[in-house]
Write a structure and sequence with these properties.
There is one protein chain. Helix 2 (101-112) packs across helix 9 (290-305) and helix 9 crosses helix 11 (419-430). The chain has a six-stranded mixed β-sheet with strand order 13-16-17-18-20-19, sandwiched between helices. With 432 residues, it is an alpha+beta fold. The chain has helices spanning 35-48, 101-112, 135-153, 175-182, 201-216, 220-232, 242-247, 259-270, 290-305, 367-380, 419-430; strands spanning 6-7, 12-16, 20-23, 31-33, 58-63, 67-72, 75-81, 86-90, 158-166, 172-173, 189-197, 282-289, 311-315, 321-323, 329-331, 336-340, 346-351, 384-390, 399-403, 408-414. It folds into three domains: 6-118, no CATH class; 143-269, no CATH class; 306-430, 3-Layer(aba) Sandwich (Trna Endonuclease, Chain: A, domain 1). Helix content is 33%, strand content 25%.
Length: 432
């Protein structure tokens, strides 16, 4: 197993899936964490044990001569502790090329960009040097780029409700406060009125996020750009109540440009994640199951490669149940269903984030997966049924299949550093 690095200056520790951390001592194949960092990460894991979504993201064990071990499983992303320490977990990708962390980072970002209802879509990895910047700083960069877009298009103004003791009467008199504060000052009026300005909740939250990240970031470029952006928000107050301001956000056409920036604000200001992780020593946990990323990535690539006039693509299709009587039961949800618009033929793909090997029985393919693909073929009357796995050097053949008198299940591999070539070969099989 290849160990990963620690950037002591930035307090960033990096491993890949199935890599392991140990505490204090040095050992080949492990990344060493300071004892307090190891304990904080351990507490984080224990606090999320039992949660259905988070149960498999990291494992705890003890090994003779090593001590306690924390092992990453099938989740990738970042964990940022409250002391500023960042844990990076990168996808484990096999390639004939020399494996480098920056390539894995770029791949992770490209995968994240395909997820729905997340703020990753518009980010361009060409704008940064992924070899010299942590994933956490990349996420900060995403937020900065979103805010630059907002500033370029112009900050949105709105009506702010103001209560103040004024020399001139305007708006509505607040009688109780007038009596309390102006009993001996008839020249003043305690009033409530609306003022049209930039101090709407959305702007205050973004400014507060910028201010927080200015103190948090270790990237000089990020810090400089945040300073520039803060100048654009000079007329905006900081948020004094995050919960209240987030609750008052208005989702309309005037704030459409703010959507992704505000999602990031929730992450940075409230520790809100796109996944259900929490912990007392953790500031931010952005972790994603590789199964979901792999499926989303393959589906997105297929949409670009296939002509939309000729094919339709759906993910997690819910057309059929395994049984129809006495009522529909056991929902079938193939990962990707491709339909030909000309003849209604169906092509089903299931993606499996699992490394196959010639040294395993049936290469490590699950019997349950085969049962599942057989059922898909029958219910959908599919022309082609294919299992897609990430390419690995542990399988000599580029493709193989299992067949019987009434079914064929194809097994194919995708090179994640060159996915289009692999997928184009798979697509061509459907067109024969």
């Amino acid at each position: 197993m290849k160990s990963r690095r620690c950037d002591s200056k930035l307090k960033t520790y990096t491993i890949s899936e199935y890599g392991s951390f140990i505490s204090e001592k040095e050992a080949e194949g492990y990344v060493t964490l300071p004892s307090h960092t190891f304990s904080a990460l351990e507490d984080f894991i224990l606090s999320n044990n039992g949660k259905s979504e988070a149960i498999e993201f990291m494992g705890l064990s003890a090994r003779k001569g090593i001590g306690r071990v924390i092992t990453a499983k099938n989740y990738v992303g970042i964990i940022t502790l409250k002391d500023g320490t960042t844990i990076e977990i990168l996808p484990k990708v096999y390639s004939s090329e020399t494996y480098k962390d920056d390539k894995a980072k770029k791949l992770l970002i490209e995968m994240l960009k395909t997820l729905k209802r997340t703020p990753f879509k518009s980010f361009q990895t060409t704008s940064i040097n992924t070899a010299k910047i942590s994933i956490f700083e990349i996420f900060i960069r995403m937020f900065i780029d979103e805010v630059f877009g907002i500033v370029k298009r112009g900050l949105r103004s709105g009506y702010e409700s103001i209560q103040a003791n004024e020399r001139f009467f305007k708006g509505k008199l607040l009688f109780n406060k007038q009596v309390k504060y102006n009993y001996a000052h008839n020249e003043r009026s305690y009033v409530k009125y609306d003022e049209f300005n930039l101090n709407r909740a959305e702007n205050k939250l973004i400014k507060s996020t910028l201010s927080f990240l200015y103190k948090t970031t270790s990237s000089s470029k990020n810090k400089n750009d945040i300073k520039i952006l803060l100048n654009s928000f000079s007329e905006v107050e900081l948020s004094t109540d995050y919960d209240s301001d987030f609750a008052s956000i208005k989702n309309d056409r005037n704030t459409k440009d703010y959507t992704y920036a505000l999602l990031w604000s929730m992450v940075f200001l409230q520790g809100k994640s796109f996944t259900a992780f929490s912990g007392s020593e953790v500031a931010i946990a952005l972790l994603f199951p590789m199964e979901l990323l792999f499926e989303s990535y393959i589906a997105a690539k297929l949409r670009k490669l296939l002509n939309s006039d000729e094919y339709s693509i759906s993910t997690q299709d819910k057309t059929f149940h395994l049984f129809d009587a006495p009522k529909p039961e056991f929902q079938m949800k193939p990962d990707i269903v491709v339909k030909s618009r000309s003849d209604n033929s169906v092509f089903i793909i299931d993606t499996k984030w699992k490394l196959l090997s010639d040294n395993k029985a049936n290469h490590g393919i699950s019997q349950a997966d085969m049962y599942q693909m057989y059922a898909y073929q029958k219910k959908y009357n599919a022309e082609n049924v294919t299992l897609i796995y990430p390419k690995t050097d542990k399988v000599n053949s580029d493709e193989f299949e299992y067949s019987s008198s009434d079914a064929i299940v194809k097994v194919r591999f995708v090179d994640l550093f060159n996915p289009n070539k692999s997928l184009q070969n798979i697509i061509s099989e459907t067109e024969k």
